[in-house]
Specification:
Chain lengths: 195, 459
């Protein structure tokens, strides 16, 4: 995983609530067995509309998505995270996220930033007024900055540390393999096996 | 202070707890399917890792499989299924492939084999893993990185969610089902209402539900945003489990039941949030919008956006759905009816649909898709397939089918369905398709009239 400390880029406002993962990447794109090539599927149904915000020239190259509340609800598909990253996003900002999506994001190094709904709207308006506006998301300081404005966000220490170090979760867990073995030795005898 | 059911099950599975870190949780059962696993197996291979506990892992083919007999014709779907077979063979994981008597939708086969038991932790790269919580365990959906983590370590790092009680008092009136209840709950608390919570469904109406009904309820917990849903085990749970292939037997059974009986929320335990709902006031419930929280009683009309809690979203949804505010829901015309999915693809669901269709004919394209090969077999032993065929419905092979349209079963753009599945998202059942979520009984009655209909409306 690529480490995330701070990122500065342009933002794109997505003024929709309940952006479910079926919209982020429709099911037909899930048939691939590789981890690449998902950028083409990102919001593919919505992108057919020339007016859709991602199609507007002013927002090309933006790397921060600023969405309405309940972003990433629904299906567990991590493909949604891959699609966003491969399209070029490093950060998604919203007032609320689907739990599984938020988990998947932090495993992959896509930073989900929770800000109050009014702050998200203020940021969306600022970006709409000036699409070239630079937005900085500073994970070290837990703060988003744009123009003269800034807003703090919360993220737990452990996830922040893991993201800033770019650490692989599996490697971390395997350091505690002895604990796992000890636990396994005490499991209840009636628990089923699949064999 | 006492503990909730969720806290008891969670604590039982903590492998390691350290200040400032998420708990490391042991996973008792890992379910796998073809869509969310290929990249996880790839990751293992690249890191030279193995599957730690293939004996706690089971795989099935469900999302891509055609429900008409014959091979997969879509080359991309075929590759995905073949990749799963190759991975299971290489890593020693038990697989139920297409055509196998044990094949079916991942959340149907776990309970059916007796692999899903009270007090367990169960995960799957699929958000509807919450289904298994109906047996009193903690079951939740995970992403592909986490699938890889569980394959490699049989554990997951996780923070314990908050707890929510949904207290359902009273009794469901005749003709009102578990599906109507969960749709009403989601409409009440919203698609984000459960975010960050494990929900425990409690109360008289829940106790009276069958295991099938409880699974329908827990299945849709994720549609309210909840991490998991659970119901305390009781005699209904034990009766369902006894004698299933992987259920304990003899002395182990007795020991297990004794432990399972302790899996209830203590009377002095405190939930972080409590929601109350009276089941006796409910009527058949349907969705009108493009998320499962946009629903209303069938006897009402398509709402005006301003009447809803998110007018902008409602306006967009009504435009997508091609609906005008004020239209009675009973007048909404439907082209296709789908009975199936991990929400409502079990035997009891098929019985409910057959009861309505017996001696009647359908006027819409009607797909009846059993949730597993075993459900199909049992339905055929009861002659349900004859009822469906006589009514003009299509009787299919087991799989996810039109729940998400990864196989050939899809809606055409603008087509409208009444579906017993769990998601009415834009394009979920096919690009441009319009979905109304309903119970199996309402689905069957709708197939008879071509408009959203409850069985009680039929002469
Ligand atoms: S039936 Fe639908 S919701 Fe259930 S596992 Fe299959 S695709 Fe997912």
């Amino acid at each position: 995983m690529e480490a995330f400390t701070a990122h500065t880029g342009r933002a794109v406002p997505l003024r929709r609530s309940n952006v479910d993962t079926d919209q982020i990447i429709p099911a037909v794109w899930l048939k691939q067995v590789s981890r690449t090539g998902f950028e083409k599927g990102l919001f593919s149904a919505w992108r057919e509309d020339p007016d859709f915000v991602l199609n507007q020239p002013a927002y090309q190259g933006a790397s921060i998505l600023v969405s309405g509340p309940d972003f990433g609800t629904g299906s567990s598909r991590e493909h949604a995270v891959w699609a966003l990253q491969q399209y070029g996003f490093r950060v998604v900002i919203a007032a609320r996220f689907g739990d599984i999506f938020r988990n998947n994001s932090t495993k992959m190094g896509l930073l989900p930033v929770v800000l109050p709904a009014e702050t998200v709207e203020a940021l969306q308006s600022a970006v709409e007024a000036d699409p070239a506006l630079e937005v900085t998301v500073d994970l070290g300081e837990r703060r988003v900055r744009w123009g003269a404005e800034s807003a703090g966000f919360e993220i737990d220490d452990y996830t922040r540390w893991r993201l800033m170090e770019g650490l692989d979760d599996i490697g971390l867990t395997l350091r505690n393999a002895d604990d796992v073995t000890a636990y396994e030795n005490g499991r209840q005898p009636w628990l089923p096996t699949t064999v | 202070m006492g503990r909730t059911l969720a806290e008891k099950v969670w604590e039982q599975h903590v492998v390691r707890r350290a200040e400032g870190e998420p708990d490391l949780l042991y996973i008792d059962l890992h379910l796998i399917h073809e869509v969310t696993s290929p990249q996880a197996f790839d990751g293992l291979r690249m890191a030279g890792r193995t599957v730690r506990r293939p004996d706690l892992t089971i795989a099935t083919e469900d999302h891509n499989v055609p429900t008409l007999l014959g091979p997969i014709t879509d080359p991309v779907s075929k590759t995905q299924v073949e990749t799963l077979r190759k991975n299971c063979a290489e890593f020693g994981v038990r697989l139920h492939p297409m055509g196998d008597a044990g094949q079916g939708v991942v959340h149907i086969i776990g309970p059916q084999f007796g692999l899903t038991q009270p007090g367990m932790t169960i995960v799957c790269g699929d958000s509807h893993t919450s289904t298994h919580g109906a047996f009193g365990g903690i079951a939740f959906g995970i992403g592909t990185s986490e699938v890889e983590h569980v394959l490699a370590t049989q554990t997951l790092p996780a923070y314990r969610p908050k707890t929510m009680a949904i207290e359902v008092s009273g009794e469901l009136p005749p003709g009102v089902t578990a599906k109507d209840l969960i749709l009403a709950i989601i409409a009440k608390i919203g698609t984000g209402g459960g975010q960050g919570y494990i929900v425990e469904y409690r109360g008289e109406a829940i106790r009276k539900l069958s295991m099938e009904g409880r699974m329908t309820i827990c299945n849709m917990s994720i549609e309210a945003g909840a991490r998991a849903g659970m119901i305390a085990p009781d005699e209904t749970t034990f009766a369902y489990l006894q004698g299933r292939p992987h259920a304990p037997t003899g002395e182990q059974w007795d020991a297990a039941v004794e432990y399972w009986k302790s899996l209830v929320t203590d009377s002095d335990a405190v939930f972080d949030t409590v929601v109350e709902i009276d089941a006796s006031t409910l009527t058949p419930f349907v969705t009108w919008g493009t998320n499962p929280g946009q629903g209303a009683p069938l006897g009402t009309a398509v709402p005006a956006p301003e009447e809803t809690n998110d007018p902008a979203a409602a306006r967009r949804a009504l435009e997508y759905m091609g609906l005008t505010p004020g239209t009675p829901l009973r007048e909404v015309e439907v082209d296709t009816v789908f009975v199936g999915s991990c929400t409502n693809g079990r035997l009891e669901d098929l019985r409910a649909a057959a009861e309505v269709l017996r001696g009647r004919s359908v006027v819409t394209r009607t797909l009846i898709v059993p949730g597993s090969m075993l459900v199909k077999l049992q339905a055929e032993q009861e002659g349900l397939h004859e009822v469906f065929k006589a009514a003009g419905a299509e009787w299919r092979e087991a799989g996810c089918s039109m729940c998400l349209g990864m196989n050939p079963d899809t809606l055409a753009p603008g087509e409208r369905s009444a579906s017993t599945s769990n998601r009415n998202f834009e394009g979920r059942q096919g690009k441009g398709g319009r979905t109304h979520l309903v119970s199996p009984a309402v689905a069957a009655a709708t197939a008879v009239t071509g408009k959203l209909t409850a069985p009680a409306d039929l002469a």
